[in-house]
# Entry
Amino acid sequence: MPELRKDYILNRWVIIASERAQRPDQFKQELPTIKKQDNCPFCPGNEHLTPNEISRREKNGKWYLRVIPNKFAAVTSEGNGIIQTHNQFYTFGNAFGKHEIIVETADKTKQLWDLSAEQVTELFEVYNERITSLWKEKGINYAQVFKNHDKAAGTSIMHSHSQIIAYDLVPQAVQDEVAASKKFPSCPYCDIILKEKNSARRCFENKNCIAFTPYASRFPFEIWIFPKKHSTTLDTTENMKDLAELLLQALKKLKTIHAPYNYMLHYSPFQENLHCHIEVLPRLTTWAGFEYSGTIINPVSPEDAAKFYRGEK
Amino acid sequence: MPELRKDYILNRWVIIASERAQRPDQFKQELPTIKKQDNCPFCPGNEHLTPNEISRREKNGKWYLRVIPNKFAAVTSEGNGIIQTHNQFYTFGNAFGKHEIIVETADKTKQLWDLSAEQVTELFEVYNERITSLWKEKGINYAQVFKNHDKAAGTSIMHSHSQIIAYDLVPQAVQDEVAASKKFPSCPYCDIILKEKNSARRCFENKNCIAFTPYASRFPFEIWIFPKKHSTTLDTTENMKDLAELLLQALKKLKTIHAPYNYMLHYSPFQENLHCHIEVLPRLTTWAGFEYSGTIINPVSPEDAAKFYRGEK
# Structure
């Protein structure tokens, strides 16, 4: 019988309709069909196509990770971030901020799930550097780090990369998590982690972090990764290393079914106390009219998804 | 410069990044690639594949519109709709309700946009009949009518059909609209209609209804259709006829670019006063990580989209 579930703390409802379920390999996708660009702007040798490099990491004089402005920026630092309302219904401003790309490797034949734990850890260090730097800029309230892998997850460039949009808003999902957390006497995610550690949704953990499939998963094989000890940011080297390790472990499983995916880093906005975490959203199904009215149907239970991650299914 | 816009009354933010914009014909999709089913369960002659027919409309002894239960129901009338919470974080119930399919035509070679205004009006009459009937059933709080056209809009069956999921929740999007409407002394949508009637976003209107592209459109070519006079449901024959006419006019434009789309009917929940309307969401782009954190990027401004609907572009 399909089950209705609410998110731990948000007013977000999901129908787990696993009677429609398929085995993980039935979700296996075709290999990426995005055609290779002859002049990939993220490849070594084409650095002139992306001017104003923000930073890079090098070895033996060659870069292996590079931060650049997004040429097709969704936000810009022109104008100002002033938001006005006309006629009580029209609220607008220019989309103020900075939009950056992090090229995760110089090797276009490798995806993030092919990199080493050390490389992914270094990527997290760069996320942290950029967040810290962008946050200090005038008018920036949040730097949203995210990754889109493959066409069904909304990207058209296969050369492995992440993005950061730093802007004057706080993303709605982060605002919702902050507001819902405040209704509890202490951080609810700290409690949720303790409960999920002993649940059928636990996937894997290491010294500092834990990965589990959330109780009201919206997407087949959705997985969240938290530092076990309350942290509002990617603060410590240990957390970054352990988060990277678990993320890589999850992605290596997703690689077996060629899953397109997004992930987002949710850290705490300024002067708030949100438990920092990563949400990984595999994109194996398509939201339809019912989902856009606000109730999500997920054909894979998080308990089955956890078996997939643990290698039991 | 990209513009940040808020929905008329909801706390929903969109970046209109039309500098990335394309002309409407650049969004033109391939023709549907869903393979034809040899044994299409919605075709005449295969009625035995879908037992327990709910209703039909016939002419000369042959049906031309048929309501049947969804064989792969997301909600079921087994069990009960009781929702429980364990451990303060786990809230669940069985997904209680009824899930129905409306086969819109017996002719599998026709899509909704190929039908006549009379046929679409009749479809609205059937929506209204089913809502009225389902609403009376014990435990049902809302009957969400929606349509998914083509694979990118979340369906795998091309034989033209709509769906209804009647369940014990009110969809979050409808709840949000109700709550936001209550903050105004009178229906805000009645005012919005008057403003949009004279805006660059007006697409078309007839005696009783109006179609416009919303100020903070989330999707390229998103279009909303409202009865001009405040109505909480699809109440009158005139409204249904005029809504159907404008919907068809919009869909015929979407046909020119083979657009996959969803639409949802938002009527007012019991004892509320929401202005009934239809939201049409063309699915020409893919939401990515940033959108799933809550800020949506739309590469087509609603002003440009309105030109497309008015045939000026």
Remarks:
- The first strand of chain A starts at residue 3 and ends at 6.
